[in-house]
Design brief:
The chain is built from 21 helices and 23 strands. It is of the alpha/beta class.
C-alpha cells in the first residue's frame, strides 16, 4: 500500500509540474533531485529504521519499524515512478526541423493515415546528426499512398516536421490521452507530409520485444495459411498470442455486452489452462521417476515465461506467470501458496519493475479479480454442499464468476460504463469452450510438421470458434443483456471497495465495532452518490465540441433531452458519441436527436442551418450559400460557427449578419483559421478557436 501510494503521488506531481511549466520541463533535470524529492523520504525512512534498531528493546516505540518501512516504500514508489515518467520529457521548440528516426514497430494502417512508432535519434543539422542523451518514442503519422506502403520496421528516416507534445481535445469527461501516452512511454506526435521524408538506411538489429513480435507474426501466418479468417481468426489470435488488432467492432461489442471480454485479454485463465496441461503431462513422468520433478517444474516455468514473451509481456500475463511460477516452485512442498500475501508479493515485484503498470486497466482488473476470488469465493462455495462431481464443478464455476464479478464490476462501470447482466450464463458457456479451443490450438500447432493432419484438425478448431461466437451473439440478443450509460467516479469506487472490505471483515470478526464501521462506510457511500447525482443534473445550455470532421451544435434542455444540429447532411456522429458519451452519461442525458435538415419544435428551430434556441441564434457556416447576398436589415447572429467547407472571409458576411461572436471549428486548416482570426481582429469581433480552447459550453 505505501508503494502504491508513492507511485500515485509521484505520478500526480509529475503531471502537475508538467502542466505548471506548460509541457516544457528541462530535459537535463533529474526528477529525483527536484523540489519534491523522494530521496529525502527514503533517507528519513532509513534513519528511522536505524534509530529503531538501537531502541529495539523498548516495546513502546515498535511503531517506528512500521513508519520507517512505510516511508522507505513510499519514497521508493514516488522516486521510480517519477524518474520513469521524466524519461519522456523532450524540449519541444515549436518549429519545423529535420530529425533522424528509426521505425521500431511494424507500421499500422489507420483510417486515413499510416501510424509508425519511431525512436527519435536526434536532430539533423548540416548533414550531421546531433544525437540526444536518450532516445524518445514518437508517433509519426504518414499519408496513405504508394510510397509510405513500403515502410517497414528498422527503416532509418530523415523527416522534416514539427514535433508536438500530446494534447487532449478539451472535451468534458474525455479520455485523458496525455496521461495514457506518457505512461506508455510516448513523448509526442508528428504528421509527416508527402515528400518531407526519405529512407537513409536500415537498422537490422532487433530487440527482444521485436523478436517476439516476429514470432507472433509467424504464428498468425500459420493461422491464415490454415484457412482461419474473419472473427474466427481474430478471436483465435487474441486467445493464443494476445493479438487483438484484428478484432472487429462487432465482435468486441458482442463479447463486451455478454461479459466475456475477459477471455479475449490473456490473463490467469489462459495461463492456468496451459499450466494445468503441462503439469498433467509432465506429472506422468515424475510419478514414475521422482527425481525428474524439479527439472519438470523448471520446464513448466520456462515454458510459461516463453509464452509470456510471445504474447508481449502484458501486465496481466506477467502477473499470472509469476503466480503460477510460485505455485510450481511451492509444489515441491505440501503448502498451498495462492494466498493474498502471494498476490501482494506479485504486485510488489511487478510495480518495482514497472510502477506505471499500476495505471493499466488490465493490471487493476486482473489483481482485483484474483483478490475477490481468494477472499469471497470460498465463503460462497461453502454456502452449499454439493455431493456429485459435475454439479460441484458447475457450482464452483458459478461461485468463481460471482466473486470475480463482485470485485471487478465497479472498475468495469468506471472504465466502460457498462454492466453485463448475463455474465453467469456467459461464463458457463465460454470458459469450457475456451478450454477446448486453447488445448486444440496447442495441439494444432504441435502438428506443424504434419501439414495434412494439421489442416484437418484446423477445421475442428474453426468449428469450436464459430460455435463460441454464435452462442455469444445469441446471448447478446437476450433482453436486458447489459445495462449501459452508467457513470461513477474514482472516489465512489474507493468508498465501495472500503465498504466491501469492511463487509468481508464482518464475516471473519463479528464485533459491534466492525458492524458500525461497515454501516458508516455504507452511509458515506450512499451520501456521496446522492450528492454526485444531484450535482450532475443537466442544465439548459449550448455546447460546441472539439471533435474533428463532425461540426455540430448541441442544444441541451433541463429535462435531459437534447438535439445535435449538424452542419453536414451526412454527419459522422459516431465520432461524437465515442468522444462525448462519458459526459452524456455523467449528466444522464438521453441519446441526442440528430438534426440534418429543417426542424422545429417548442423552443427550438433549425432552418437553413440557423439554430434558434432559448433566445440565442447560431449560424452553422460550412458552404457558400450566403456568398454574394446582402440585406438592408442584417440578422443578429449570437454565434457564427465556421467549419470546413467555407472558403470566404468574414467581411462578406457583414452585409447579411450582425455577428457577435465567431467560433472556429477544429476541421479548419491552420492557414484558414489564421486568416479568419485576423478578419475578426480587424472587425473587433470576438473569436474563439475550438482547436486551441477545447469544447465551449454556454449556459442559458
Amino acid at each position: 500500500m505505501p508503494l502504491t501510494g508513492g507511485i500515485i503521488c509521484g505520478d500526480a506531481y509529475f503531471f502537475h509540474q508538467r502542466a505548471e511549466l506548460s509541457l516544457n520541463i528541462p530535459e537535463e533535470t533529474s526528477y529525483l533531485f527536484s523540489t519534491f524529492s523522494p530521496v529525502w523520504i527514503c533517507l528519513a525512512g532509513f534513519l528511522l529504521l536505524f534509530f529503531a534498531y538501537f531502541l529495539s528493546g523498548k516495546y513502546r516505540i515498535h511503531w517506528l519499524y512500521g513508519l520507517s518501512v512505510f516511508l522507505c516504500c513510499f519514497g521508493l514508489g514516488a522516486g521510480i515512478s517519477g524518474e520513469l515518467l521524466h524519461r519522456v520529457v523532450f524540449p519541444f521548440s515549436g518549429d519545423a526541423a529535420v530529425y533522424q528516426a528509426v521505425i521500431s514497430e511494424q507500421p499500422e494502417m489507420k483510417e486515413k493515415s499510416l501510424l509508425c512508432r519511431v525512436q527519435l535519434e536526434g536532430r539533423v543539422e548540416k548533414g550531421a546528426v546531433q544525437r540526444s542523451d536518450r532516445e524518445h518514442t514518437f508517433l509519426f503519422y504518414f499519408p496513405k499512398d504508394s510510397t509510405t506502403a513500403s515502410l517497414s520496421r528498422g527503416d532509418r528516416l530523415w523527416v522534416r516536421t514539427r514535433l508536438t507534445p500530446p494534447v487532449n481535445n478539451g472535451n468534458p469527461d474525455e479520455f485523458d490521452y496525455i496521461r495514457y501516452l506518457v505512461r506508455k512511454g510516448g513523448t509526442g506526435t508528428a504528421y509527416i507530409p508527402a515528400g518531407h521524408w526519405r529512407i537513409v538506411g536500415h537498422d537490422a538489429s532487433r530487440t527482444l520485444r521485436q523478436i517476439v513480435s516476429d514470432y507472433q507474426e509467424k504464428v498468425l501466418g500459420i493461422y491464415r495459411h490454415l484457412g482461419f479468417q474473419g472473427d474466427n481468426l481474430a478471436v483465435l489470435s487474441a486467445l493464443t498470442v494476445g493479438d487483438k488488432e484484428n478484432l472487429s467492432e462487432d465482435i468486441r461489442e458482442t463479447y463486451s455486452i455478454t461479459g466475456a471480454s475477459h477471455v479475449l485479454a490473456l490473463s490467469g485463465l489462459h495461463i492456468g489452462f496451459l499450466y494445468a496441461l503441462l503439469f498433467f503431462l509432465l506429472s506422468l513422468i515424475w510419478k514414475r521417476w521422482s527425481y525428474f520433478k524439479p527439472f519438470g517444474l523448471f520446464l513448466i516455468i520456462l515454458f510459461l515465461w516463453g509464452f509470456a514473451f510471445l504474447t508481449g509481456l502484458s501486465s496481466s500475463v506477467v502477473r499470472s506467470v509469476i503466480m503460477f511460477s510460485l505455485l510450481a516452485i511451492s509444489s515441491l512442498q505440501p503448502e498451498k501458496p495462492l494466498t493474498l500475501n502471494t498476490l501482494a508479493a506479485t504486485a510488489f515485484l511487478m510495480l518495482l519493475y514497472n510502477p506505471l503498470w499500476l495505471f493499466d486497466v488490465g493490471f487493476q482488473l486482473s489483481f482485483v479479480a484474483v483478490a475477490s476470488i481468494l477472499l469471497i469465493q470460498p465463503k460462497l462455495y461453502n454456502l452449499l454442499s454439493v455431493r456429485y462431481r459435475i454439479p460441484r464443478y458447475i457450482w464452483g464455476l458459478l461461485t468463481v464468476s460471482i466473486a470475480a464479478q463482485i470485485g471487478t464490476a465497479p472498475l468495469v462501470i468506471l472504465y466502460f460504463s457498462r454492466f453485463s447482466t448475463h455474465f453467469l450464463l456467459t461464463n458457463l458457456w465460454v470458459i469450457p469452450m475456451v478450454t477446448l479451443i486453447l488445448y486444440s490450438a496447442v495441439f494444432m500447432l504441435i502438428l506443424t510438421p504434419f501439414p495434412f493432419l494439421q489442416q484437418g484438425f484446423a477445421s475442428v478448431v474453426n468449428i469450436l470458434l464459430s460455435s463460441q461466437n454464435n452462442v455469444l451473439r445469441r446471448i447478446e440478443q437476450f433482453p436486458m443483456s447489459s445495462i449501459d450509460g452508467l457513470w461513477t467516479e474514482c472516489w465512489e469506487i474507493m468508498l465501495f471497495y472500503i465498504f466491501l472490505l469492511s463487509l468481508f471483515r464482518n464475516f471473519s470478526v463479528r464485533t459491534s465495532r466492525s458492524i458500525y464501521f461497515s454501516l458508516c462506510c455504507l452511509l458515506l457511500l450512499t451520501t456521496y452518490h446522492t450528492v454526485l447525482v444531484s450535482s450532475s443534473v443537466p442544465q439548459c445550455c449550448i455546447a460546441f465540441y472539439n471533435v474533428r470532421n463532425c461540426p455540430a451544435v448541441h442544444c441541451l434542455a433541463a429535462n435531459g433531452k437534447s438535439w445535435l444540429a449538424c452542419a453536414d447532411s451526412l454527419p459522422d456522429v459516431s465520432r461524437l458519441y465515442r468522444a462525448l458519451s462519458p459526459n452524456w452519461n455523467h449528466h444522464r442525458l438521453s441519446t441526442p436527436e440528430v438534426l440534418t435538415g429543417d426542424y422545429a419544435t417548442s423552443g427550438l428551430a433549425f432552418h437553413n442551418h440557423i439554430v434558434s434556441y432559448a433566445g440565442k441564434r447560431i449560424c452553422l457556416l460550412h458552404d457558400a450559400r450566403w456568398r454574394n447576398k446582402i440585406s438592408s436589415h442584417p440578422l443578429t447572429i449570437d454565434y457564427l460557427y465556421i467549419s470546413k467547407g467555407y472558403k470566404g472571409r468574414i467581411e462578406e458576411l457583414t452585409t447579411l449578419f450582425r455577428i457577435r461572436t465567431v467560433i472556429l471549428d477544429t476541421s479548419l486548416s491552420d492557414y484558414h483559421s489564421d486568416i479568419l482570426r485576423e478578419d475578426c481582429s480587424r472587425l473587433a469581433i470576438p473569436c474563439i478557436s475550438l482547436k486551441e480552447r477545447g469544447a465551449l459550453c454556454i449556459p442559458l
